[in-house]
Amino acid sequence: MKNSVTHTFRQAKSELAKVIFPTKPQVKQAFFAVLIVVSVVVLFLAFVDFVMSATVSAILS
In terms of residue numbers, what domain contains 38? Predict the structure, then answer.
C-alpha cells in the first residue's frame, strides 16, 4: 500500500515537472481577451433581450 502511494506521488511530481505554466504577459493577454469577449456577448444578449421584450410588448398592447 505504502509503495503504491509513493509511486503515485512520484508519477504526479514527474508529470507536474512537464507542465509549462503561462507567463505574466500571457495571463494578462488572456484575461483581457476573455474580458472583451464576455463584454461583447453581454452587450449582444442585452440588445436581443431589449428587442424581444419590445416586440412582445408591442404585440400584447
Answer: 21-61
What global pTM score does this model have?
Answer: 0.67
Q: Which amino acid is at 21?
A: F
Q: What is the pLDDT of residues 11-59, one digit of tens each?
A: 999 999 999 999 999 999 999 999 999 999 999 999 999 999 999 999 9
41 inside domain: yes
Residue 7: what residue type? H
Written in H, E and C, the secondary structure of 1-61 is: CHHHHHHHHHHHHHHHHCCCCCCHHHHHHHHHHHHHHHHHHHHHHHHHHHHHHHHHHHHHC
